[in-house]
């Protein structure tokens, strides 16, 4: 097991009570006090700190978008990523069964242990300490958050992309279903007539197939060297540049 | 509108920035900055503070029970109760439509405004201030929390009640359905043979009817002066008291 000092350095926090650190790293499959209560506490301090970071960083977006962003920043996969950066798997204390089945690589175990660590820091050092530790892990992530797209599903993104270009909404249609009732595969086509795009994708439900088709449609739009909508906008802009109105814009 | 000083006294907090207090009390139906972003922030600080209060107060219960308790303490009805105690409806700023339709009495509007107030206190005075304000509102409530039962549904409570007396689980059966398919009423019977209890209740779904029947069964059990299960246990105990084994128990 790696030295816990390395982990504490990566967290930017030195525990006064080493037992709390140890408990945070102990999965319930291991003997002794485990990390599940700390995880409960850590989950809630994490949610709050990320909420307040988003509140300050994005002063103009509404609470629905704040909720969407937060949900994505604290979801299991995001926490497992942070846990991996911290090499958390090297410090975990797991029972034999979990050890053999590779539990130290499991995203849920990593995410839970990370939350438990945040909870342990709060108990050990108070709210300011926990806030600093969490903020340190999220700084770079927040620098790269695209508040408009993060956590939106492909259908929503496609719709917004088309609305932004003042184009009609895409048209979805089930073109085929395969297989028996309990194990059907839906094939859905997504058409965007204005851009001559027609793609299709399969899925275990109509909704899943629509999302996959929307994803393909977005890829198709991005693959167009200059999308038709954009070409028009750019042409208009370059025309304006040679007119007085462009000069007045430069003065602003 | 009542004086905001009365509200601040009830909260135990005096705002430095009166605009934050005003915004927290402003529903989105009213003109000007409204309270929805503050509500997002307040919801998360509330969740965290209640989590930490429960963590400290109930050192033995597991994270599942902590989650259940918290969910019940921060649910809309619980928040609306606190808001009513604070006479929050007297301070709300609502649009005309909401005013006319009695929005100041609506639990969702009251609960949201209370959360927004907590968020505003955090912004105005920092975490410690928010923690104190929330703790003050929850002190009495926490003193009366029954950690074993709060937030459990009647079927679960009934099952635990019977298991505690080492009795068989209740038997549920749909005894009748009434009405057309889109508007059915289910009648469910709940039997506890060991206690000679047989009650029935109706509901819009099988599940709902079972829950109502379980609630009636609990009432029926509590109405028995001495439930049979208990009587047996007491009888056995009093028998034991006259035997050597009871003496050895007393020595422990």
From TrEMBL, chains A, B:
DRBM domain location: 153-223
Catalytic activity line of the entry: Endonucleolytic cleavage to 5'-phosphomonoester
Keyword Magnesium in annotation: yes
Entry's EC annotation: 3.1.26.3
Active site: 43, 115
Matching NCBIfam families: RNaseIII (TIGR02191)
CDD domains (UniProt xref): DSRM_RNAse_III_family, RIBOc
Record-level GO cellular component terms: cytoplasm
Keywords noted in UniProt: Cytoplasm, Endonuclease, Hydrolase, Magnesium, Metal-binding, mRNA processing, Nuclease, RNA-binding, rRNA processing, rRNA-binding, tRNA processing
Protein name: Ribonuclease 3
Lineage: Bacteria, Pseudomonadati, Pseudomonadota, Betaproteobacteria, Burkholderiales
Domain (RNase III) ranges: 4-126
Family membership: Belongs to the ribonuclease III family.
Biological source species: Pollutimonas harenae
InterPro entries reported in the protein's UniProt record: dsRBD_dom, RNase_III, RNase_III_dom, RNase_III_sf
Residue ranges, annotated region (Disordered): 229-252
Pfam families with a match to the protein in the record: dsrm, Ribonucleas_3_3
């Amino acid at each position: 097991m790696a030295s816990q000092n390395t982990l504490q350095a990566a967290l930017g926090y030195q525990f006064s009570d080493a037992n709390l650190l140890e408990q945070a790293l102990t999965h319930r499959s291991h003997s002794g006090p485990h990390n599940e209560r700390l995880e409960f506490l850590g989950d809630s301090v994490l949610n709050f700190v990320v909420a307040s970071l988003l509140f300050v960083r994005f002063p103009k977006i509404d609470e629905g978008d704040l909720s969407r962003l937060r949900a994505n920043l604290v979801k299991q996969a995001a926490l497992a990523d942070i846990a991996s950066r911290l090499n958390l798997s090297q410090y975990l204390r797991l029972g034999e069964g979990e050890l053999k089945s590779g539990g130290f690589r499991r995203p849920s175990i990593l995410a839970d242990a990370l939350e438990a660590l945040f909870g342990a820091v709060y108990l050990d050092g108070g709210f300011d300490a926990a806030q600093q530790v969490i903020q340190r892990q999220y700084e770079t992530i927040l620098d790269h958050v695209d508040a408009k797209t993060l956590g939106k599903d492909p259908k929503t993104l496609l719709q917004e992309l088309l609305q932004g270009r003042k184009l009609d909404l895409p048209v979805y249609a089930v073109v085929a279903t395969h297989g028996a009732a309990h194990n059907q595969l839906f094939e859905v086509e997504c058409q965007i007539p204005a851009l001559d795009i027609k793609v299709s994708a399969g899925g275990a439900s109509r909704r899943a197939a629509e999302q996959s088709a929307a994803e393909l449609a977005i890829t198709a739009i991005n693959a167009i060297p200059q999308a038709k909508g954009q070409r028009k906008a750019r042409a208009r802009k370059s025309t304006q540049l040679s007119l007085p109105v462009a000069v007045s814009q430069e003065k602003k």
